[in-house]
Amino acid sequence: MPFQVGEVVEGTVLNITDFGAFIQLPEGKTGLVHISEVANTYVKDIKDFLKEQDKVKVKVLSMDKGGRISLSIKKALPNQVPQERNKRDYERQDNRNYNNISFEERMSKFLKDSDERQQQLKKNFDSKRKGSSYKKNTNF
C-alpha cells in the first residue's frame, strides 16, 4: 500500500453522504471521513465544509482486513480548521460582532432571539394541535 496508518495523504472528495465523505486516495483506494472527523467544530451539514471534487489532506486512522479505510480531515491539520463554506463564515462574523457589543446590547439580542424562538415553537405546537383533532368514540 502507498500509505500507512498515521500518515497524511492528499485525496479527492468523490461522494458526500449524511454520515461522511468518501475520499479517493492514491492508487485508486477509497476511504471514508466520518462526519465527526471533518472539522474541529460541530458539523450539522457536511456540505457546509466539503463539496465533490475538493482536494483535501486526510490522516489515515485505520485500515481493516476488509479493505475499509478510516480517515480524518481534522487530524490531518491539527492547528487548522478546514476551509468552510459561506454559512460558517457568516457565523464567525456574527460572533466577532457579538464580542464587540455591550452587555445591554447582548441581552437585548438574546431576549429578541428567545422571543422569536418561543413564538415559532408556539406556532408549530398550535398547528399540530389543530391538525390532529381528538374525537370521542361513541360507538360502544
TrEMBL record:
GO CC annotations, alphabetized: cytoplasm
InterPro entries attached to this UniProt entry: NA-bd_OB-fold, Ribos_protein_bS1-like, S1_domain
Annotated ranges, domain S1 motif: 6-74
Superkingdom field: Bacteria
PROSITE patterns: S1
GO molecular function per UniProt: mRNA binding; structural constituent of ribosome
GO term, biological process aspect, one: translation
Biased composition (Basic and acidic residues): 84-95, 103-129
Region (Disordered): 78-140
SUPFAM superfamilies: Nucleic acid-binding proteins
NCBIfam families: PRK05807.1
Name assigned to this protein: RNA-binding protein S1
